[in-house]
Amino acid sequence: MENSGGDVMHVVIFGCGYSGTAIAKAFAGSGIRITGTTRSADKAELLAAEGIEAFVFDGETLDPALREAMKSATHLVQSIAPGRAGDPLLRLAQLNLRALMPKLEWICYLSTVGVYGDHKGAWISEETPLHPIADRSVERVEAEDGWLRVGVRLDLPVAVLRLSGIYGPGRNAFSNLEKGTARRLIKANQVFNRIRVEDIGACARFLSDRRLGGIYNVTDDEPAPPQDIVAEAARLMGVEPPPEQPFETAELTPMARSFYGENKRVSNAKLRALGFAFRFPEYRMSLAELWSSGRWRG
Hints:
This protein is an alpha/beta fold. The protein has helices spanning about 20-25, 40-50, 65-70, 90-95, 95-100, 135-155, 175-180, 195-210, 225-235, 255-260, 270-275, 285-295, and strands at about 10-15, 35-40, 55, 75-80, 105-110, 125, 160-165, 165, 185, 195, 215-220, 245, 265. A 7-stranded parallel sheet has the order 3-2-1-4-5-7-11, with helices on both faces.
């Protein structure tokens, strides 16, 4: 497939992990070149087995072969989380992204609904003011701003995808029940949104095909108590769900506990208004599809 300039469409995905690989699959075919980076040689082999041209990227230095591949990139997806030193790709590119990727036409940055912080269960949209709580969410806001500024400077569309809790094949409540790690934590009025990983890929492709930039909540239709998802998965499996545990007395890692410090209902109305159709809009039908298809193990 060629882009508007007659070049072969070349999607480069930095951080080609769970979501990145789903995006790669959404773009695959029609002669589109897909390049992905990962942190280890073992994972690079797994990407290559999926038909993705793979490079190891440690977040510090760009391998000469990777630099060469980037020269023909028409589409960039940045999925690597920022750290205290900021976004690794922005840091390496400095103000020179155009020199690294002269054919670039569209940029996608994967962020998180964590940037909104806590809204005590209220509905929020892309217009809602940001009140990030966790350090990782503050770093995400800074990275979002950095990529949006790149878009302005280079006159390129930058799509920022704010993702809810990601699940899908190999990463879901069925897997957790099978491993014995599923828990039903009860915290009054707590809800979360979630998103099937395939819908992330489809959304990126949808926005790319229309050369759209902007900020988008990529999330399902139905914020729900997390214990309900575990109970529904157990019902489908025909097993007893784990016992309910009060959140307040449960042993949790600081990271897990911090997630419960934020309570909001995230709207996807902006994406829907553009005509994007979620394939997995709510968790019941999504879990039923995962279970009946046998794909829940990945």
